[in-house]
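Reading a protein record of the kind used here takes little practice once its layout is understood. The fold follows as a row of integers, each naming the local backbone shape at the matching residue. With these conventions in mind, the following record can be read line by line:

_____
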Amino acid sequence: MSTTVNAEIGAAAAEGNLLHELVHWRLNTLGLPFDDTDSEFIAECIRVGAPISQDRRAQAAYQRYMRRFGLNEEAA
């Protein structure tokens, strides 16, 4: 995480990015799938309130996850 970028995006967005990265770390240390497109990763992000990457593939995986479990996006 870059101090310069964090200053540009503001504290709330920087905290969201850090939380997102901590989800990667936690799942990896537990030996669970931790890619932005993995259902386990998306579920954990939703659980802890971490933002989902804006990457096209991550957003598509998020949409599939939400449809699969019958969730609406406002709940996430």
Q: What stands out?
A: The two ends are 24 Å apart (CA to CA). The CA atoms of residues 62 and 74 lie 13 Å apart. Residues 36-76 form one domain. The mean pLDDT is 94.
